[in-house]
Each structure stands twice: as C-alpha cells, then as structure tokens.
Write a structure and sequence with these properties.
heterodimer; A: 246 residues; alpha/beta; Rossmann fold; four-stranded antiparallel beta sheet; 7 helices; B: 2 domains; 13 helices; elongated
Chain lengths: 246, 462
C-alpha cells in the first residue's frame, strides 16, 4: 500500500521486504513482505502493537540487519548489495539513530559521546570539540558537556543522544521509541526537537512508536503494522505531509 | 578510524577495567621476564665461553704445518689438496707468502724447545716458547702480574702459574685452596734465571768423515750456551691451551729466541734431506685481523698446500651447542608467555561480553568491523607493550640477582667473579616486540569475535 510519489524524491523504498528467523522449531516472521516508499523530508510514524515488526523494519532500514528477502533502497543505495564495511559507512554518513534506551556510553562524558561518530568519520580531532559543542548547544545541553550520562535525567540523555545522531548531518533520522522511557512532558520536548530538525534541516524521519497520540501530533504520515505486515498507511490530515505541530 | 583515535579509545577502555587489565599485563610481564632471564643466561654463558676462548689468544690464530712433516692436527682433512710428497716446504719464503695473504696481520714461526732453566741453582726442565711482541696487545695476558716484555729482544721471560707453583714448591693439593697469581708473582718477579740451550751454528764447508756431503746440502754445529733471563711476568691464563702436551710454561720474546738460534726438531730433520739456505719451520702461527677472517685465511693456506688448524673449528661446535641451549632456554621461557597469552585471550573475551552493548552502539553509530577489530588489537598490543617493557625490566632484575648470587658463591670458592648473564639491546627490543606480537596474536580471536557481533543482538543485550 505504498504511496504513489515521484522516484527522485524517494528517501526510503522497501520492496516486499521480509525478515524471518527461526526460534527453535518456530519460524518467526518479524517483517513479512512490506513494501513502502518514504519521500525525502517526510515525517513517518511506524505504529503497531509489540511484536508487530516496527523495530525490525527500522533495523533493516538502518542497515543494522539484513532482510531474508526483498529489497531496501535508501537514498539510492540498495542495502543488500553493500558489503559490511560499506554498510558501516552508510550508517555513519546517511543515518542517525535514536534509541528508547538512549544508548550513550556510560564511561564517556556527553561531549565524548557526541564526538564518537566524528571519530569514526575521521574528522580532524581539532575540529571535533567545536562541532560536538555546537550539537549539544542545539539540544540545550551545552553546559552539561562534561557530565557523564549517569549524572543526567532521561530527557537530557535522550537530547544528548539526538545531538549524537545528528552530528554527521545524516539525511535520515531513525528513532526507535524515542519517548518510551520518558514522562510525557520530557517526551514532548524530545518530539519538538525531532520535529524542528525535520522542518529546519529537511531531514527524513522514520519513528517507531506505539503512542498513537504522539504520532498524530507530529507525524505527517502514519504506517500501521501488525504481525510483520503493513496494515495501514495514511497521511495525517492534521499535519502536513512533512510533519507539523498541532 | 584514525590510529590516534584507536589508541585513545583503547587506553580509555583499558583504564575502565584497570585491575583486571593490570593483572593480565603482569602475566605478560612475568612471561617475558622468564624468557629474558633464560635467554640472558644462555647468552651470558656463551659470551663467557667466547671470552675464555678469546683470552686464549688463539681465537684469531691459524696454526700452519707442512704436509711433508707431521700429519697435522686434523689429518682427516688432508684428502683435499696436494699429497705430502708434492706439498711445499714450510720455510721462510712460505711464511712470507702467508703473511701477505689478505686478512693476515702476521705470520711467525713457532719456536719451542724443551730446556733447563736454573733458578737459585735449582734446575727446572720445561717447554719454552717464543712469543711475538705483538702479543702484548692481545687479551691473552689480561690479569697478568708484572709486565710484558720491555722490547722484542729483551732477555726476559713470562712464566705460567703452574711453573711458578713448581718453582716455589707450592703445587696445590686436591681440595686445598688455590694460590692467587699475585701471591706467586711476588717472590718471582725480577728474579734472574739461567737458561741452558743448544745453539745451532752454521759450519759450511766442513768435511764429512762418515760420508760425502751432497751438493746444496748444509751442515751445522751444536753448541751449548747459557742465557740470563729476568722474570717479568706471571700469568694465569694459558694462551697455548690448544697445543695440548706441546704447550709451553715459559715464554720469551720470539725475536730473542730466533736470534739465539736454538736448535729445533726440524733442524735434525733438515740433515736428512736436501735443503737450501732458508730456515724451515715445523709450524707457523698466523694471526688474522679478526676471528671472521680465520675461515678465509685457512682456506687460502690450504690452497697453498699446507695443513691448518684453528680454534674457530672448535668454537663452531661450541656455537652450535649454545644455539641449541638458547633454543631450549627460549622454549622454557616461552611457556610462561604462552600461559600469559591465554590470559590476554580471556581478558579480551571478558571485555567483549562486558562491552557487548557498547560495541553494538559503536556499530549503530557507524563503526566498521575494522574499527572494532583495531580497537581490540590496540588493547592487546598496549598490554603487550607495557607487559613486554615490564617483563624486560623484571628479567633484567632476575638476571642481576642470579649473577649476584653466583658470584657470591664463586667468591666463597675462591674463584674470580664472572658475568654469567647478559641482556643485549637486541634481546630487550626483541622481547618487547615478541610480547607485542604474542599479544597481537592473542587478540586475533577476540577481535574477530567482537567485529562479527550482530549489532541488533548487541543492542538488545543488557
């Protein structure tokens, strides 16, 4: 049930994508033949109950996992054709990821965490602190740069995680339940930031969430999954196609 | 990821589990220390043996004999080259030819004879040998009491310790304490001895009575003479150790011995064959520039048709023995390092388990397999580097302690102290490099395992 949009503006395209794996005698169909096209700059929410395949689909688009069948094309790159090293480069340059559990490295300060993707991108080490500080300033954490994650609240950790995801200026932001571990006020703060990046940087956002209300408020398009299949894909009339705040 | 970042992150990770990583590094240090201690002992013993041989003064000497005369020291080697009947005489012109060979410092005839020395009117029969003046620069007389000959023709002698003991009536009994050279030298230095010897005097034109003389042959007279000589030195080392029963116990300047025309065994032999006016020698000693020249000079002399013998032949088997000894010591020393390398594997595998999620995060952020692998290799190499350096230091201390303990024992047994242990620079650098290589190899499996980690599984890991 993919939307009909011109090819040139397609950021993500999946063609009958499957991710099956065996668990003992049982074949688990985490993603089962999903075809979807996401336009560049779109804010798409992936909705569905637990085990519906939202995170599995997100991992396939992120290049963290490979499909057992079908095709994932992101920014013109067929991920199945990429080697492990090329896939790592793709994750570094094209994708920024935000996780429910924040996934900051506890032994590093915030600025060191944010700098980490710059190390992998081999950015000159003299330039890195300024870039990382800018990113932290953007999420309002400039003054907490030398703190360790354990010294910060959940919302602050997620903001730092967002700064890290954006440090290499990716064209695609993938967020896996970014507000799942946060209270509603902090969750709103994070969603506002993501929405701002979507609007100001023209970044495509694919967000996994099980909060219908949140999706309806920020996402321009809502894709519903159940049992690994796409069951509904519709634009959010309350928000423009590229997202918006009610 | 750049090399600096790999190193920086590796050091940061090592600091995170400081205690465990320190214990692993200590394991490497102990392994390297045992390797260094074992090898330094092997090297030290080899150097001690080489030093002993070098001090003999014959390490850089080739002894030349004629095939016409004695069968040589190594008759089994005579199958190559001319037969004894065709081989040349070892005479003065042959000596000069040998002296002009490349790598040869000097070639001097071996003058030795058994004669009587009188000291305080008591006769002592002994073997006397002429010693070239150049021997004053060699290590052969290191630790000698007194001085070397004052000139190439000085009427002076240097006596060996056994001769001094005999003269002084202080021959050590089994189990009793050995006398020091200094104690023996005190009453002997500057003492005068009288040497009785037989001088060969040419007597050309003398008519034979028992038979007619061949054309071109020569005759000589033998005249009994005496020569006063002063004892100037007493030595413990034996520069003639390889000559066996023919070794001399008293040395006088070679030039003086030549000038005295002391009759030699070859002179008797000369009467039985036609010979020219040239002096013929039983043996000629050839001193080469460095021990490395011995082989080439020996080959050149053999090509001339003479027999040769050098101590290098003997040291070659000694070197083989030490090579095998070093190998075994190295293997025993490496056992501890093998155990340490298992410790590295264990530590890094533990680190993978602990940092599984962290590896997943890094991969999700764009770290490649190479980056993750490099990180674990760097951690292994850092432990190897620190462990290697620490191990060398520890091995050095162990060697010092062994050396100190041995010398305490040697002193108690009235032996001079010895350097039994040696840590050359190549061993220091080699041991550190070896530690890094072993650590690197130990890191192969953990690094590959970390790089293969599935990021999705790793991120799920709590």
């Amino acid at each position: 049930m993919a939307s009909a949009v011109p090819d040139s503006s397609i950021a993500v395209r999946t063609e009958n994508i499957c991710r099956h794996f065996r668990m003992g005698e049982t074949l688990v169909r985490a993603v089962d033949g999903i075809s979807i096209e996401i336009r560049a700059g779109e804010f798409v929410a992936l909705l569905g109950p637990s085990g519906s395949g939202k995170s599995s689909l997100l991992n396939l688009v992120a290049g963290l996992d490979r499909p057992t069948a079908g095709k994932v094309v992101v920014q013109g790159n067929d991920l199945a054709a990429l080697s492990r090293e090329q896939l790592a480069k793709y994750r570094l340059r094209t994708v920024g990821m935000v996780f429910q559990a924040f996934n900051l490295i506890p032994s590093m300060t915030l600025i060191e965490n944010v700098e980490l993707p710059l190390r992998f991108a081999e950015v000159d080490r003299r330039e890195r602190p300024a870039l990382a500080r800018d990113a932290l300033d953007r999420v309002g954490l400039g003054r907490r740069a030398s703190h360790r994650p354990a010294e910060l609240s959940g919302g602050e950790q997620q903001r730092a995680s967002l700064a890290r995801a954006l440090i290499n200026r990716p064209r695609l932001l993938l967020a896996d339940e970014p507000t799942g571990n946060l209270d509603s006020r902090t969750g709103t703060e994070i969603m506002t930031l993501i929405h701002d990046f979507n609007q100001s940087l023209g970044m495509t956002v694919l967000m996994v969430t099980h909060e219908q209300a949140l999706a309806e408020r920020y996402a321009g398009r809502m894709v519903h999954l159940a049992d690994g299949k796409l069951v509904d894909d519709r634009l959010n009339p309350a928000v423009g196609p590229s997202g918006g705040v009610a | 990821m750049k090399f600096y970042d790999v190193g920086d992150l590796a050091v940061r990770n090592l600091r995170e589990s400081l205690f465990r990583n320190s214990l692993t590094t200590l394991g490497i240090a102990v392994g390297i220390a045992s390797l260094v201690a074992m090898l330094s002992l092997g090297i030290g013993l080899q150097q001690l043996a080489s030093r002993r041989l070098e001090r003999s003064g014959l390490f850089d000497t080739v002894v030349v004999t004629s095939r016409r005369d004695f069968r040589g020291f190594r008759s089994e080697r005579e199958e190559n080259g001319p037969s004894p009947a065709e081989s040349p005489f070892l005479d003065e012109s042959a000596r000069q030819r040998i002296e002009h060979l490349p790598g040869v410092l000097e070639a001097y005839p071996d003058i030795r004879f058994i004669t009587e020395l009188r000291l305080d009117d008591k006769p002592y029969l002994t073997m006397i040998s002429g010693l070239p003046f150049s021997a004053r620069n060699s290590d052969a007389f290191e630790g000698m009491q007194g001085t070397f000959f004052s000139s190439p023709t000085a009427p002076e002698i240097i006596v060996q310790k056994p001769f001094a003991e005999e003269v002084l009536g202080r021959t050590p009994k089994a189990g009793s304490d050995d006398m020091s050279v200094a104690d023996l030298a005190k009453p002997l230095l500057s003492k005068e001895v009288t040497m009785r010897y037989a001088e060969r005097m040419p007597s050309a034109g003398t008519a034979g009575t028992a038979g007619s003389m061949d054309a071109g042959s020569a005759a000589y007279s033998v005249v009994s003479r005496t020569q006063a000589l002063k004892i100037v030195g007493v030595t413990d080392l034996d520069p003639e150790s390889m000559r066996g029963a023919a070794r001399a116990r008293v040395f006088l300047p070679l030039q003086l011995a030549q000038n005295l025309h002391v009759i030699q065994p070859s002179d008797v032999r000369d009467t039985t064959r036609a010979f020219g006016s040239e002096a013929a020698y039983t043996t000629v000693s050839v001193r080469v520039k460095t021990p490395q020249h011995v082989q080439a000079v020996e080959a050149a002399i053999k090509k001339m048709g003479f027999n040769t013998f050098s101590i290098v032949d003997a040291t070659r088997s000694l070197q083989r023995f030490f090579a095998v000894l070093d190998l075994f010591l190295g293997i025993f020393g490496s056992l501890a390092l093998a155990v340490a390398s298992i410790g590295i594997v264990n530590t890094l595998v533990m680190a993978i388990l602990e940092r599984r999620r962290e590896i997943g995060i890094m991969k999700a952020l764009g770290a490649s397999d190479t980056d993750v692998k490099g990180l674990f290799f760097a951690e292994a190499a850092a432990m190897g580097c620190v462990g290697g350096a620490g191990g060398v230091a520890l091995g050095w201390i162990i060697g010092r302690v062994i050396n100190f303990g041995t010398n305490v024992y040697l002193r108690r047994q009235n032996f001079p102290p010895e350097q039994l242990w040696s840590v050359p620079l190549w061993l220091v650098l080699g041991a550190i490099a070896f530690a890094i290589v072993v650590s690197f190899l130990s890191g192969l499996y953990p690094a590959a395992r970390a790089a293969r980690l599935d990021p999705v599984q790793a991120l799920r890991y709590e």
